[in-house]
Design brief:
It comes from Anaerofustis stercorihominis DSM 17244. By secondary structure, the protein is an all-alpha fold. It has 13 helices and no strands. The longest helix has about 40 residues.
Length: about 240
């Protein structure tokens, strides 16, 4: 029985109609659960949607945690390890917002409403495109991490230089780091900017180098996508 539940809640095999129906049903429930977030007001219908969808999410969570030994293949330890896996954490966070409806008297619980947006991440579990993307990222993990470390170090150095070049315009190091991040990503909101000649020169250099750093992950991911597409084509053939 548990094995059949596991087959149902996991990604469907083409010929497993029950599993495919379950995935479609869960996707519909996830979309419906987000509808109340599109409105600033609340009413009985939205409360009903929240209660109902949250109950379904709880049942789904119980199904998955009760069959986690099939997924993780670590015996009884699977039941302890599974709640800490990324999607299990998302599932749990998706359930928490209903506390804000049950306990209106506690304002703190109302903060959980923002966690409802995490329900959209649940849909990634049923997406083959997400599986494809995650495989590419996993394969290219080492160069991507190297670029990330380089970007963080570069941002820190740029912020440190700007903070000392523009002491009057950047009140604290966080402001300088915020500016360096927007310069690196070439966003440039314009709320914080250098005013001295030296600061402007640093800003120009930072922006030019930022373009090069931002372009590197795109090239790596593109090559990774092409390699994964070719690999899957070879498997089919």
């Amino acid at each position: 029985m548990r094995e059949r539940i596991y087959e149902m809640v996991e990604k469907p095999v083409e010929e497993d109609s029950l599993s495919r129906m379950y995935d479609i049903f869960m996707l519909i429930v996830i979309i419906i659960s987000i509808i109340p977030l599109c409105f600033k007001f609340n009413n009985r219908l939205f409360n009903f949607i929240d209660y109902t969808t949250c109950t379904i999410f709880i049942v789904d969570y119980i199904f998955r945690i009760s069959t986690s030994d099939y997924k993780l293949n670590q015996g009884k330890m699977s039941f302890i390890l599974y709640p800490f896996t990324p999607f299990a954490v998302i599932d749990l966070i998706s359930i928490l917002p209903t506390i804000s409806i049950i306990s209106h008297s506690f304002k703190l619980f109302r903060l959980f409403r923002v966690f409802k947006t995490f329900r959209l991440f649940k849909s990634l579990r049923y997406s083959r495109n997400f599986e494809f993307i995650s495989t590419v990222i996993k394969n290219e993990k080492e160069p991507l991490i190297s670029i990330l470390v380089f970007a963080v170090v570069y941002t820190f150095i740029s912020a440190l230089i700007m903070f000392n070049v523009e002491p009057g315009n950047f009140k604290n190091f966080f402001d300088a780091f915020y500016w360096a991040t927007t310069a690196l990503t070439t966003v440039g909101y314009g709320d914080i900017y250098p005013v001295t000649e030296a600061g402007k020169i640093v800003s120009m250099l930072s922006s030019c180098l930022g373009i090069a750093i931002i372009a590197l992950p795109s090239g790596i991911l593109t090559a990774g996508f092409m390699s994964e597409i070719e690999r899957r084509k070879d498997e089919v053939e």
